[in-house]
Amino acid sequence: MDKLSYLSNADSAYIDSLYEAYKQDPEAVDFGWRKFFEGFDFGQTGAAGTTQATPDHVLKEINVLNMINGYRDRGHLFTETNPVRQRRKYYPGKELETFGLSESDMDTVFNAGVEIGLGPAKLRDIRQLIEDTYCRSIGAEFKYIRSPEKIKWLQDRMEGERNTPNFPIEKKKRILKKLNEAVVFENFLGTKFLGQKRFSLEGAESLIPALDSVIEKGADLGIREFVIGMAHRGRLNVLTNILGKSYESIFSEFEGKTYAEEAEQDFGGDVKYHLGYSTDITTDNGASVHLSLVPNPSHLETVDPVVEGIVRSKIDMKYDGDATRIAPILIHGDAAIAGQGIVYEVIQMSKLEGFRTGGTIHIVVNNQVGFTTNFKDGRSSTYCTDIAKVTLSPVFHVNGDDVEALVYAINLAVEYRQKYHTDVFIDLLCYRRYGHNEADEPKFTQPLLYKAIEKHPNPREIYNKKLLEQGSVDANLAKEMEKDFRKLLQERLEESKEEENLTQDNPMYSGAWKGLRKARYEDIFAPVKTAVAEKNFLALAKAISTLPKDKKFFRKISRLFEERLKMVNTKTFDWAMGELMAYATLLDEGFRVRISGQDVERGTFSHRHAVLTLEDSEEEYIPLQQISGGERFNVYNSHLSEYGVLGFEYGYALANPQSLTIWEAQFGDFYNGAQIIVDQYISSAETKWRRSNGLVMLLPHGLEGQGPEHSSARIERFLELCAENNMQIVNCTTPANFFHVLRRQLKRDYRKPLIVFTPKSLLRHPKVVSNIAEFTGKSQFQEVIDDNYVKSADVKRVLFCSGKIYYDLLEKQQADERKDVAIIRVEQLYPTPMDKLRAVRNKYKNASEFIWVQEEPENMGAWPYICRKFRNRNITLDVVSRKESSSTATGYAKQHITQQLAVVGRAFEDKNAGQEVKDQVKANVKVAQKVD
Asked: What is the helix (H) or strand (E) element at residue 816, kind and residue range?
């Protein structure tokens, strides 16, 4: 046997033994082998009608089967899918000899043809079918899928049609029309707006008929909404020729026009190829479909989790859990899908309960180059789409010059998605007509490739030639299409020149956002009614704290809930109850609450216990789901991802402003793994894209001797992003204030992101409690909390602070009975309540010192921001903090306590602080040695 054959001598001996067993007793062999052996009688029938089956022919039959499966498994390596490069060579190949066959076998009839639906057939016919199916313009990777049903479905569909489209004339004309629009639109922009960046689709224009087809096909299969995420390349073409954004708007954007409305004067805007759009279309079959293209920054794959979050939100809110009614489409670049870790984070969400969206249609616009980097330098994997194997998703590699093959493959992909509710990938092999942008010179780095591209016809020319050769269209059809479309574009260009400003044709506050509005400056500090009736509060508190008698919980859990019931009786509540009561009251009022993040069900510090697992089983009990409206409460432990999950929750909140959508970091420090979402979306989307969002971030924060990576949520980084009332930054010190600030998110008629620096050690601090009056009556969120321990006339020094350090200062103040020092808590750092802070300052008119106290180093925390705010208003403010540092905190417990006591001592100008530090370090060191 040839050494390259897939079948070894051991295999042959095994098959011979099976065949012998079959001849003795057909029932003695496996069903699959029995079906294989029966009915052949192995191909050779003598003149007398007797079977002359031989082990040699049995082996040949197996070799043919092996060839069929070899094509199914490796045929994608030998396809005609690259329009401008020679494919790499793979060894062994698909030669007959590889499978133990030869040319002399080509006219032999093999019953193995049954496997591909031919019945007994000549080897040349069998080979032709699998060659057409797996080695032409479509290469399929699917054999790694572990579901025999899915594999068989794909095999039957592809082999039954030989992966060869057979579209009617009208479908072909539609494809040509969409190709024409794609090609002419890019050409028109290139000639009318010379030198301007547009990140053209040229070389990949077949994407447009492909998207057009997937929408039509998807609508036929029940999809009523598509949410699309893509980077900049080809975005303008997709906006106009798929979503129907007016050509006049695009032309006006090229001319640099801005919005005229007064309400848009603080709209900073973004470059035109980052903007989003949404619209409703009607398909050829009369279905109404909503299309959305999500805004995207230059961080290419950042939009992926946002799209998934939007889709999941709509599944929950709009489609009653039916994921077949809406589908996400993610359009990637080949370099980005292979190089960006966020892609992996998002793909790992696809089958998780809290994040699945019924399958994503991934389309890779494979230009075979990333900016100036060749593909061989951009990845180690064979294909840019090899990440699909993580979730066992099928991949179709398609030649971008064969537009019918692409349309066929993407139709198959959407069918698969609808049937099996999993991801599917289309690898669109194409090229970039120009450089990274139209001003770039690609020959600097890819001279040979771009020599080939210069001579290469565009997909419309190729397809038109094919249709003419088939006699499918009139010779003048393409010319007439181009002439008519170019005329239309010219008319729209002239119309755009007549308009002085852009008009808003895609308003934010519609659909799910109807009834909400953009916040005005005077709204920011307006009081918000967030208190609830005492009777209702206590009833809900009792309900979520009472465990069923017929279920066995861990003893510690039972004791914890007994303590919570005691809180109901004493009407005094800790941090966990303040938080849970915010959720309970919102659910009771008809809102949705969703929380996700690492370990959020229990809480990193075991304070929340929103989900309880029974002691003797894996059954879960969720107290908040037992109250009225509790079905709208969802809490999910996420996979170990910050970037992906925060982006997902941002998208979820974007689609549903009536949900309190929360992402919690395990430790606040870890949010920086998702810094791009904070910078590009949370802090800036409203001014860039006119997109409001009410997402809440909970970031455990506080220096407690747990080291540099478990101390600081980087308050300073959030504050440096604050302007134009874009976010809310709070560092609450009481359960009630946390309760009110969470409820405030949904009790106003506008939405702003909320960043909450939450406590760790304070979760069980005996002084961190709130009584019932602080949740009810006329209570509300307090941006600033004054000191009720002192009399203003006696105060000589005023300490401003925020968060955990207040309790360290309070302990010192009370122990030393310092009536001359007032401690003012700034609960909301931004928007900064300057009027209230100024009023506090004026109240303590006998004070000679006003000091900002923080436990963070001087170059971190709130001080750099607060200093600037006060300085700009000619208010003198000194600082007491740790000294400047390149690291957020020390990793040594003794050093931490020394520093902390020194900060507190300096705040009170205690001359004995140094000795006090020495005395207390030994006594307190155990407190700071808590493990993560």
From this structure: helix 805-816
Fold of 526-774: Rossmann fold (3.40.50)
Read off the pLDDT band of 196 (50, 70, 90).
confident
Q: Give bridge partners of residue 825 from the DSSP assignment.
A: 785, 801
User: Do residues 635 and 622 lie in contact, with contact meaning Cβ atoms separated by under 8 Å?
Assistant: yes
CB 787 within 8 A of CB 821: no
pLDDT recorded at residue 930: 44
Structure tokens that stand for 112 in this block: 């193995």
CATH 3.40.50.970 holds for 169-504: yes
Return phi, psi of residue 384, to 5°.
-65, -20
| Residue 856, strand partner residues | none
Collapsed DSSP state (helix, strand, coil) of residue 760: coil
- Site of tokens 């093999």: 110
Pairing of strands 424-429, 361-366: parallel
How would residue 927 be classed by pLDDT, with cut points 50, 70 and 90? very low
- Using DSSP's 3-state secondary structure scheme, residue 4 falls into coil
DSSP per-residue string spanning 153-194: HHHHHHHHHTT-----HHHHHHHHHHHHHHHHHHHHHHHHST
Average pLDDT, integer, range 248-263:
74
Cβ partners under 8 Å of residue 285, min gap 6: 216, 219, 220
* Sign, CA torsion 77/80/84/86: positive
Residue 294 near residue 227, CB atoms below 8 Å: yes
Architecture of the CATH domain 786-929 = 3-Layer(aba) Sandwich (3.40)
Q: Which amino acid is at 411?
A: N
Rounded to an integer, what distance in angstroms lies between the CA atom of residue 669 and that of residue 885? 16
Which residue shows structure tokens 């574009």?
489
Cα 409 from chain centre: 25
Q: How far is CA 153 from the centre of its chain?
A: 29
pLDDT, position 474: 87
The predicted model scores a pTM of: 0.92
For position 855, what pLDDT does the model report? 97
Q: Name the average pLDDT for the chain.
A: 91
Residue type, 841: R
Residues forming a β-bridge with 330: 229, 362
Burial pattern 3-34, b for ≥16 Cβ within 10 A else e, equals eebbbeeeebeebeebbeebeeeeeebeeebe
What confidence tens digit (pLDDT) does each residue in 588-629 have? 999 999 999 999 999 999 999 999 999 988 899 999 999 999
CB distance 726 to 687 below 8 Å: yes
Would you state the pLDDT for residue 504? 64
Confidence band for 505, pLDDT divided at 50, 70 and 90:
low
Cα(50)–Cα(54) distance, integer angstroms: 12
122, pLDDT greater than 60: yes
Beta-bridged to residue 853, according to DSSP, are 880
pLDDT of residue 851: 96
In 3-state terms, what secondary structure has residue 359? coil
Three-state secondary structure call for residue 285: coil
Least confident of 203-212, 261-270, 862-871, 897-906: 261-270
d(CA 332, CA 347): 13
Is the preceding peptide bond at 700 cis, omega within 30 degrees of 0? no
The domain locations on the chain are 9-161, 169-504, 526-774, 786-929
Query: How far is the C-alpha of 337 from the C-alpha of 927, rounded, in Å?
Result: 46
Pick the CATH number of 9-161 from 1.10.287.1150, 3.40.50.360, 2.60.40.10, 1.10.357.140: 1.10.287.1150
Instruction: State both tokens at 95.
Output: 């030669």
Beta strands in 522-624 (DSSP E): 572-573, 592-597, 612-613, 620-621
3-class SS of residue 785: strand
- 3 state DSSP class of 153: helix
Same fold, 169-504 and 526-774: yes
Minimal CA–CA distance to 803: which of 841, 845, 856, 864? 856
What letter does residue 883 receive in the DSSP assignment?
P
H runs (alpha helix) in 223-297: 235-241, 247-254
